[in-house]
Amino acid sequence: MELFSKKKEEKLEEITPALKAKLDEFAEKGNQFEEEEQYEEAIQAWEEGLNLIPEPQQYYSETIWFLAAIGDVYFKKEMYPQAHKCFDKARGNLSGGGYGNPFIMLRLGECCLEIGDEKNAMEYLLRAYMMEGKEIFEPDEDGEDDGQKYFDFLRTHVEHIE
Prior knowledge:
Radius of gyration: 18 Å
Shape: globular
Mean pLDDT: 89
CATH topology: Serine Threonine Protein Phosphatase 5, Tetratricopeptide repeat
Low-confidence stretches: 1-9
Distance between the termini: 60 Å
Number of strands: 0
CATH architecture: Alpha Horseshoe
Strand content: under 5%
CATH superfamily: Tetratricopeptide repeat domain
Oligomer: single chain
């Protein structure tokens, strides 16, 4: 008698070249809308792309990209609960990219701080810092995205961060 039944392994659908092309198309369309500051349209394009990814989506690295793009627009618009939801889903991605992605950790930490979850903010900001150093908190090439506030929070809560 077998004490433990073997769970039938799920076979994941492959991202075919045709599907990859469609995903790239929606990604580019969203990027174009974002550049034109048409944020709702950008989110809509990225969500359409995300919806093409087979279930369970958390097993595909493409999911991280779409969630991060959507979450980043929400973050820039100071819609922190919505941004947090996107980055938290990206963090939980099982394709191996979420926890190891410094940008996901940074944005998740920033969102946590903005919604009042200091404990998790500290954890995720520290992860981002450990992967990329202080540079991850510096403004991007457009001078936007100043992370000084978040770096100061981290520095006041963790010893030996300069």
